[in-house]
TrEMBL record:
Domain called Amidohydrolase-related: residue spans: 55-405
Protein name: Amidohydrolase family protein
Gene Ontology molecular functions: hydrolase activity, acting on carbon-nitrogen (but not peptide) bonds
Pfam families found in the cross-reference section: Amidohydro_1
Organism of origin: Inhella proteolytica
Length: 413
């Protein structure tokens, strides 16, 4: 394994606003071994990187990606085939790594094959966590069939209705089976569709989805595996009921209200808003061929997106960084910092993309932090991101070094 020694570093640890100056940090076997204000010794052959007073901080975490989402239109993603989708994933994940994201959470569509390819170094990528296929009720947000498509009944076809991103599961027994199936295939968490969504053709945004017994069954399976459940939710009603029934992480939460934000905060649940995909689709959706019915829905959601962030902040909700980018919009990943910067301070944003994300993923002390024993996922920022979050919104141009699992991905020293 790689042995590294950083010297003269200003360290942001992922949590504290107080950054220690003149620090030394030693990496071996992919983990942080020592941090000291005094010079450290390292074995012969250790690579020494002079940080020169710049900020050394945890690698970033994007907790809402879809690596195989090669287009803004789901029908076209399905049609292009596995090879094309994989090529897009390689390109997208490589870009994320260059931007300083050393961990991503694929929250719908990602699988063990892509995870293993990334882990084995077959292509350049962050650490890849995945939820497998999303659980959706028939006619829910994960059901991408057009209204005119007829169902395939069991007597004629015994297969499960599924697509690239979702599998249909109705009733407690099917929810249990499909949650267990995704966990069997290595899913790090399970995502369910708790409300209507933008990309699906037949369900309104305001629609609450899944019954209480179905949601609780999915949550119970996750807890039995020492994992957790996440839920796609836009309206406040869906957010509240999913959190009440035990869901740990809410994806989007765009149409939240003050009362629900306070409820989420009191329960200690997390919300992963995704501002950049909303703005990208409002600006470019028509040009990129986003379906007309979906374009109408995203423009509705956009009206409350930023104000929803303000409600979350005021209530003290634990907010996590996520982007949800589709197709060619993947290049806007770092723009999420700029959009959230209208509401949150740089320190709040840094925590969202490091320590709070790690906590939500049940990986506190492992990623999203600079402390002894943690994975050596580190970036060097050319300046002070606690004062200027724009340094992280520059698509990696303001990063002097990116380290993932103790391996130097790139460095200017």
């Amino acid at each position: 394994m790689h042995s590294l020694l950083f010297k003269n570093a200003r360290i942001f640890d992922g949590t504290s606003a107080d950054c220690a100056e003149g620090q030394w940090l030693r990496v071996a076997d992919g983990r942080i071994q020592e941090i000291s204000a005094q010079p450290l010794q390292a074995p012969e052959g250790t690579r020494v990187i002079d940080v020169a007073g710049r900020t050394l901080m945890p690698g970033l975490i994007d907790a809402h990606v879809h690596a195989f989402a090669s287009d803004v239109a789901v029908a076209r993603i399905e049609a292009v085939g596995e090879a094309y989708r994989t090529a897009h994933a390689v390109r997208m994940l490589g870009h994320a790594l260059d931007c300083g994201f050393t961990t991503v959470r694929d929250i719908g569509g990602g699988n063990y094959s892509l995870y293993k390819a990334a882990a084995d170094g077959l292509f350049r990528a962050p650490h890849f966590h995945y939820a497998g296929k999303i659980l959706s009720m028939t006619g829910g947000h994960g059901d991408m069939r057009q209204i005119e498509q007829t169902p395939r009944y069991a007597p004629a076809c015994a297969c499960v209705e599924a697509n690239m991103f979702s599998v249909m599961a109705d009733g407690v027994d099917e929810c249990l089976k499909q949650a267990r199936e995704q966990l069997r295939q290595g899913a790090h968490c399970i995502k369910l569709m708790g409300s209507g969504g933008v990309a699906s053709p037949t369900d309104p945004i305001w629609m609450n989805q899944y019954r209480e017994d179905e949601i609780r069954a999915i949550v119970g399976e996750c807890e039995a595996r020492r994992s957790y459940a996440a839920a796609h939710c836009h309206p406040a009603s869906a957010v509240r009921r999913c959190v009440e029934y035990g869901v740990r992480a809410i994806e989007h939460g765009t149409l939240i209200d003050a009362e629900t934000a306070a409820f989420v905060a009191a329960r200690g649940a997390y919300i992963v808003p995704t501002m950049v995909i909303i703005h990208a689709l409002v600006e470019m959706g028509r040009e990129l061929g986003f379906p007309a019915q979906s374009q109408e829905k995203v423009e509705l959601v956009a009206q409350q997106a930023i104000s929803g962030l303000d409600l979350m902040r005021s209530a003290g909700v634990k907010v996590v960084f996520g982007t949800d980018l589709l197709g060619s919009t993947y290049t806007q990943q770092c723009r999420e910092f700029t959009l959230r910067g209208q509401v949150f301070t740089p320190l709040e944003l840094l925590r969202q993309a490091t320590s709070t994300a790690a906590e939500m993923m049940l990986m506190q002390g492992q990623i999203g932090c600079v402390q002894v024993g943690a994975q050596a996922d580190l970036i060097v920022v050319d300046g002070d991101p606690l004062r200027d979050i724009g340094l992280l919104a520059a698509d990696g141009r303001k990063l002097g070094c990116v380290v993932r699992g103790g391996e130097v991905i790139r460095s200017d020293r």
